[in-house]
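Objective 1b: paired records.
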Amino acid sequence: MKKTLALCLVALMCCTVLFGCQSASPAPASSPDSAAPNSAAPAPASSSSDAPAAEAISEDDKWNDMTDEELYELAKQEGGEITIYAITSRMPKTCEAFMEAYPELKAVSTDFDQNEAVSKIEIEAKSNNVNADILQCKDSAGEIYYDFFPSGYLETYYPSDICSTIDPELLKYGMPFYVGLNFWYYNTAIHDSAPVSNWWQIIEKDESGNNKFNLVFQNPSGNDTYMALYCNMILLAEEMAKAYEQTYGKPLEYTYDASKTPGVPENNAGYEFLYRLSQCKLTFINDGDDIVEAVHASSTTGIDTLGFASAGKITNRDENGWDIEWVDDLDPFLNVMNANYLYLVKGCDNPAGARLFIRFLMGGAEGGGPGFKPFTKEGNWSVRSDYTNPNNPFAASEVKSIPTDIEGVYGIFLDAKDFWDYWLAKSPMK
């Protein structure tokens, strides 16, 4: 991953989003029987930065204001099969609903590992054999927006009506589809309510230097989403320091040695938290179901356990009767919104059909359409303000969930990872 910061061009990208989604005088949509707009994105503007240029949006912004009906007419003229490279196994269900709603079109989804999907798109573009129309992906640390998107294999699509229902902060780095959240889980047989309300309480130790809680989670070294969480914590160092002082009534004492790893500043509360966490007794488990099962089992083992895993693992509470619940309030923030993004593949065969599929996938013009239904399990949150997943107990905006700062995370990601790896290796609690 390159470590270029592109503040100016990110600002331009934000302007592009606002132009595509909130234009006061949008260009009139073409009639259904008119020729399709040019779907090719112009080459990024020359710059010393590796960040995408604002011009990466489609050359003809009439796409953004087209209705479902107009896109459908153009998609029928394309006559192809809309192909989605996805990182989820739920997308085929949306494809089925899509073909029922638009019987003259076909849609097929292939489930890939993200790196595999990205590599496949690049190879196909270089061989002039573009097969995919849409990429669904995550971008926890900016590897898509800063490393892959500038290569010119993808383009963005910002449908005006749908974008008007989305927080502009979530639109900075692409078209968001839904957000996933990660939570600390606690055992409800041991605690009537969450035993912690502040991040610093999670890593408390007693006078003997033992953890107050048994901490179970995936090693952040092997999970970009988890490492990006701590990067956001580093970027919010002032808030982390205030949270410590509010809890313990005294200023935070900095105990890490910044000189041991390059690029790490002194007296940063986020790095201090990461250092103290690395020196705790930790249990690393890769599977989220196994993590929350360990939390459930703590009522019988007598070891009070907190486990960090994706929100969707809460379904084990109802399906398996496990004694688990989310910690749903932490200072200074609860968790980070990890957005899934949708991109069009540049030069695809079905530019209108792909855009129609994206609109359908996001619930259509009104937000409650059947395309998003396969993604409404408890623990997934739509990015739209006009739709609430009925399976979730609250909206992401109702708790202390924050949009991830992908630009900031990208700039410090490798330094933070090196810092974590170094001090974890030095931990006496291994």
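Objective 1b, second protein:
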Amino acid sequence: MKNISFLKSKNWFRYIIILVAGLFLGWLFFHTPNNSQVKQEVKSVKKQWWTCSMHPQIRLDHSGKCPICGMDLVPVKEDGSGDSTATDPNSISLSDEAVALANIQTTYVGMKRPYKNLRLFGKVQPDERLQQSQAAYVGGRIERLFVNAAGDRVSKGQPLAVIYSPELYTAEQELVEALKFKEPEQRLYLVSAAKEKLRLWNLTSGQIATILRTKKASPLVVLKANTSGTVMAKLVNQGDYVSQGAVLFQVANLSQVWIGFQAYEEDLPFLKKGQTIAFTSQAIPGRTFYGRISFIDPVVNATTRTANVRVVMSNSGGLFKPEMFVTGNVSAVLNQYKNKIVVPQSAVLWTGQRSVVYLKVQGTKEPAFVMREVELGPSLSSAYVILSGLKEGDEIVTNGAFAIDASAQLAGKKSMINQ
């Protein structure tokens, strides 16, 4: 009896072991792990990529050296927190901490009436229409100078110099001899011819009348100023010999002057005749002057790449002096771009061939940004006119765009360099 009961108890023990083994195998084959464990296992086997900070297009599955520049490769960092709402594969997500550290700022763009402020540099010049050359009408020697330095003021008819001229003496002597002819017709003809010759040498009627009255010739002639103004250049000294027609003095009337500004060729489309220029000079502190453009040079200087822009100013008080430096400012309204978007210059990344901005992606849990290529119009003082690529209401990055672009490059996404 004892043997039979022992055998029965041994069979029950075997059944229990088989049941436990069956339950364990069932749990092992039919148990489904939870989602967090799956994600953790997938993440643990996800391949690590390596890139070069100077050449983001390099992506290798192992560390080492960049095959282009030889720098150490760095691991590719996943952007942000993997925000699933940023559907654009080229968008770059950043954490709130990264945005704060990079001082990233955004603004909504809109249409504005663009103004372009031009800064021009120039100097005061004599009005060329009021300049005259004082020339010697006869050849000879400068016996005396009444004007001794540039800057002296002269009046019309004022004596400038005395010239000793043997040629003039001969011509005057011809007039004196013509008066001695007894035959009236012949005397009248010779006297008229001699007087005309003296007039061509710029002798005045009074000087000729003196010769007729005294019947004496003189080798000395007085050169008188033919205009009032300031002597800009003195080209002779006392005792010099000069030929007929030689310039002795340059005289300019400074009651009216030119303000000549130099404008670069890219600024010329925004300048026009009649436009107002405000200008100042360090020689006249505390005052601002206004003038209107009267002339724009149609030819650009091949060396300086500038064109002359002229403003005519009254100078009756002698305030403006030739060669005085001035600084001008012009505010040009760009009416042809009045329906275009204007963005700050800090928002635009320019590669030389193309220009890009970064837009903030809307509706994401964490800040996300995507690159947008734009076409630039004229540059303003601190902004650009956008011809295409943006629409009114877009939110763009105005500060910190370089930091976002660097993150996109390291992530191997579309950026200023990686197209």
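The helical segments are 2-30, 35-45, 96-101, 166-178, 184-200, 205-214, 401-410. Residues 131-252 form a domain with the OB fold (Dihydrolipoamide Acetyltransferase, E2P) fold (CATH 2.40.50.100).
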